[in-house]
Automatic annotation (TrEMBL):
Keyword Cell membrane set for record: yes
GO MF, any single term: transmembrane transporter activity
Entry GO CC: plasma membrane
Main location: membrane
Protein origin, superkingdom: Bacteria
The protein's name in its UniProt record: MFS transporter
Amino acid sequence: MKKTISLYFLIMFLIGTDTFLVSPLLPLLSHLYHVPTTQSGWIVSAYAIGYVLFAIIAGPISDQRDKKKVLLFGFTGFGLATFLCAFAFNFSFMLIFRFLAGAFAAIAAPQIWASVPRVVKKKEVMKSMGYVGAAISVSQLAGVPIGSFLASISWRTPFLVVSFLSLLVAVVANFLLPNVLPQNQSKQKRNMIKIYHSIINDRVSVAVIIAYFIFQTGNFTVLNFIGTWLEKDFSVSITGVGFAMIFIGFGNLVGTTFGSQLIKQIGAKTSLFLGFGILILLYLSIPFSKSSLWGTAILTLIMMLNGFVFPIFMTLMQSTPIKDKSTMSSLGNAAMYAGSTISGMIGGILITNFPNFQGISGLCILLYLISATLYFKSGSLNLI
């Protein structure tokens, strides 16, 4: 199963890298397409919108099919859409192709989270979730510098490289990944309305999705405005912000990679309780940062803890009584991107009107308290 998990890692890495490497391209694309910087952000938003919309549709459809085939369809489409981005001759076509890339990513990524519990032993699920989740951290860590380097050759190069590697991995995955057939194939297939009706009527599933959405809203409010805070309060240069993000991303990678071992020793419930508790204490301390170095150190610890609790969130998503695991995984991913979108709206107001990161820290503390309450009160932690 090591080959399978390694391929899942590569696929998640490429999808994640595509998301992060676009950021350094925005100034170039803004100039190329003759659009204001404020509008260039839609290149990122188009991907997120495509992801959220198709995640809702793709989940129920994929639950009735071989997850390997759905994964390969989505990942191949993602590679082709990313390839087309390299030849978008105007801003409108770039938005369309980015939307398609997000849509195909929404078809592919949830299949991985839904497949992991089916292809590994139960005692290895948490560890495997952490390993696959580390791909997102690595992509966050490497995406911006890789994107910057490739963009120095040409703005088309990042898209061409990611698309080529994606299609290559898709070919390899076709031969090496196991088939993951739908469970209970003998039963009558359910339509989308029935699947979502069963999820809405399951209290635990609803609580897990809402709690994850609330957590990610707080998480992305911080991530989206780290650079703004460092520049505003400490006059850190763009290069300095880049180095800070590398350290912060490395912290997340460490937490995601090694957290599952600690979770296995002390239990998921204790791990989540400690994780939320320490995170809240760290957010309380951020406004008192006296230097960018101190602030970066705290944020690195925060992202390490976020990586530590991430496998628990993913395992909980797949441990609810709902049998439609791809739909649950799709909803979890949609919740994450919805949280990312909302955080951009809220964070801008908070960073402008409150000094020393106080507004964003305060919001995170509030959201994490609500999220933790939902997880513990729902009884979901008794399922793993």
